[in-house]
């Protein structure tokens, strides 16, 4: 007997841009993530921009992962090798578990677009207090690559053989119809 497919289940997704130079008007990466998550049927919970500072990032992300309403956090920026790039150092201590394959798969997909420059990406993902966190490079192209190539499917309950939705929301409970 075939398993009944799961319906789409919208998630609340927060977007954090890490930048020493961008404000809302210049934040094309954050805006692209918001557009893509909303186009996929999810809702934007909160949006913030912080300087590339370990403690500023941790403060925002810690607040979000303590909030039961935040299912996913998308962070763009600060994953490179410049002296101010500190997103992995800020976020790794907050994680309960890393999604080891995310960074590897992102770099594999990104290789097709930017060649060996992809080795300078320290993209990562993990789970903290039942909140899924993705740390992405700051370029709009990299955010689109990550969303279209990996994240969108993993945040869709209809994707098989597995996705993160049940882990974030619990098992699907069909509505009960009264007679």
TrEMBL record:
<dbReference type="GO" id="GO:0006777">
    <property type="term" value="P:Mo-molybdopterin cofactor biosynthetic process"/>
</dbReference>
<protein>
    <recommendedName>
        <fullName>Molybdenum cofactor biosynthesis protein B</fullName>
    </recommendedName>
</protein>
<dbReference type="InterPro" id="IPR013484">
    <property type="entry name" value="MoaB_proteobac"/>
</dbReference>
<comment type="function">
    <text>May be involved in the biosynthesis of molybdopterin.</text>
</comment>
<feature type="domain" description="MoaB/Mog">
    <location>
        <begin position="14"/>
        <end position="158"/>
    </location>
</feature>
<keyword id="KW-0501">Molybdenum cofactor biosynthesis</keyword>
<dbReference type="InterPro" id="IPR001453">
    <property type="entry name" value="MoaB/Mog_dom"/>
</dbReference>
<dbReference type="InterPro" id="IPR008284">
    <property type="entry name" value="MoCF_biosynth_CS"/>
</dbReference>
<comment type="pathway">
    <text>Cofactor biosynthesis; molybdopterin biosynthesis.</text>
</comment>
<dbReference type="InterPro" id="IPR036425">
    <property type="entry name" value="MoaB/Mog-like_dom_sf"/>
</dbReference>
<comment type="similarity">
    <text>Belongs to the MoaB/Mog family.</text>
</comment>
<dbReference type="Pfam" id="PF00994">
    <property type="entry name" value="MoCF_biosynth"/>
</dbReference>
<dbReference type="InterPro" id="IPR012245">
    <property type="entry name" value="MoaB"/>
</dbReference>
<dbReference type="GO" id="GO:0005829">
    <property type="term" value="C:cytosol"/>
</dbReference>
